[in-house]
Design a protein that fits this description.
Helix content: 25-40%
Number of helices: 17
Strand content: 15-25%
Shape: elongated
Number of strands: 19
Largest sheet: 11 strands, mixed
Strand order of the largest sheet: 10-9-19-18-17-11-16-15-12-14-13
Distance between the termini: 76 Å
Radius of gyration: 31 Å
Structural class: alpha/beta
Length: 599
Amino acid sequence: MHTTQTPQPAPSQEREIIGRVLSVAGSNARIELAANLVRDASRATVGKFLGVVGAESVIIGMVTEVCEQTGGRGGSVAQIDLFGEMHERFGTPTFSRGVTDYPVIGDPVLLMTNDDLRLIYGNTRAAAHVGTLRQDCSIRALIDVDELLNKHFAILGTTGVGKSSGVAVILQQVLAARPDLRIFLVDPHNEYGRCFGDKAQVLNPRNLRLPFWLFSFEETVDAFFGGRPGVNEEVEILAEVIPIAKGTYLQYRSAHERTLTKKRDPKSAGFTADTPAPYRIEDLLGLIDERMGKLENRSSRLHHFKLMQRIQTFRNNPRYAFMFENANVGGDTMAEIISNLFRLPANGKPVTVMQLAGFPAEVVDSVVSVLCRMAFDFGLWSDGVSPLLFICEEAHRYASSAEIKRGFGPTRRALSRIAKEGRKYGVFLGLITQRPCEIDPNIISQCNTLFVMRLANDRDQMLIRSAVSDAASSLLTFVPSLGTGEAFVFGSGVALPMQMTFSNVPEHLRPSSEVGQSAQVSADAGIDLITSVIERWRSATMSQKLFEDDGYDIGLPRDDTPPMQPGGLESGADLQRARLLKQPLSAALASTDAPKAWR
């Protein structure tokens, strides 16, 4: 059986008694400071740590307020928030969070030394060094990586306070402490592409392949209707034909693989509109066209025709090439897509940075929803075989409260599911935002470690105050006066609430928007620069590239023969030729030898 002793104060010249306890409440106490300390504000001012010497321990508290004592008695009174206790076990001082032995009136009070602070803040398992204490820059600020991940975290602060650099520091240290971890970072402003060096894979519209058939029904409707509410009649048509299109594709695959399976009716294949199974957009259009041909009601035919036109316009827009280009080439590519997105295997690049700045604004919410949902579902069905940290920058855009008429419901629900259940399946969440008051309270309440940087908005401060369950919630009064790169950290990821300064990030790894950095253009560039910009501007919204004007000849016949597909299309557009025209010469020629079922 071990014995517990009160830590003995240091000699009087080093650890003099500076006051005594006047009153005690549940989580704070008032301290009468000695009169000779009135002029020495640096010794017992706001932010300093004091220790109350009790019968069994030294109770640690931080000064949150200092005022002059009333009644003409001289001296001053400090209010401290109580955080934890220091004990001495077998001659070794240790620190534990929480208070079990409250102080009594008259207990002596000491000023904590740097050695005490090192003991308090160094008591962290799986520690990662992310900065220094604001009280003493020689003391490292450590976070418990396991607690940080397992209970989620959030980084909150207004624009320009160093949030992005803080995110880079935390993720770099987390990655060093947990090399088995995969990190997926949603980057709306293309800031983090260079933060992880050769450890990161950077995805953008130019190199991402996210086939349309991976989208759930709600996500598909949101994409086809450009982020606006869908027309009820057209949505009902989609709900009926998408499962049939998936069943039709299953027959194509069986025929191509020459498997001896009984031919089934596509309607009885068992697919739903949400099943992540491949289907061809040509089959979808053919089914809609076939249904339209059997209708006599003009209004119903019009709904079918408008839906077909909507899908064709969406599919032929080059800005959505990441969804449609080569979407069915190679068949069911879901395994390869998940491997690429979530780095399984990592191959030396455990981080994925998803740059969203180049995506069409109408589908950004749908894309983020797909990524969130796939991250959770893979963790769910793999029983957490590969831990994943999902970082959502500008989280108020995707996880906004339902009362705020912004954002996409499925995205919010997907993030909420990660927040509530993800830790069970090895999927962890990190939120970064400048407007915490706009985030769904059910999501931010699941983040047990908060890095709070400077925030001036009263509503944001009020929400954080309600989210911080720690006795240190009164420290939030300091938040509006924090400097750049400084943060208060609350929650299970740190031994005690602490005011810290993030470490400096090397220049070559510092987050920075890529806009304007691709080339340095002189002021004399003039009309040549403008012409180049206009060409890029126009090409981003052109439905096809004019190979004739560029001198290319891919050697394909130019006829109006419609492609082979179920039901045919009344438009008569050669969909296969249009797709080939978008491909490079070598790819176009190679694809002409592919089986018809894959084209």
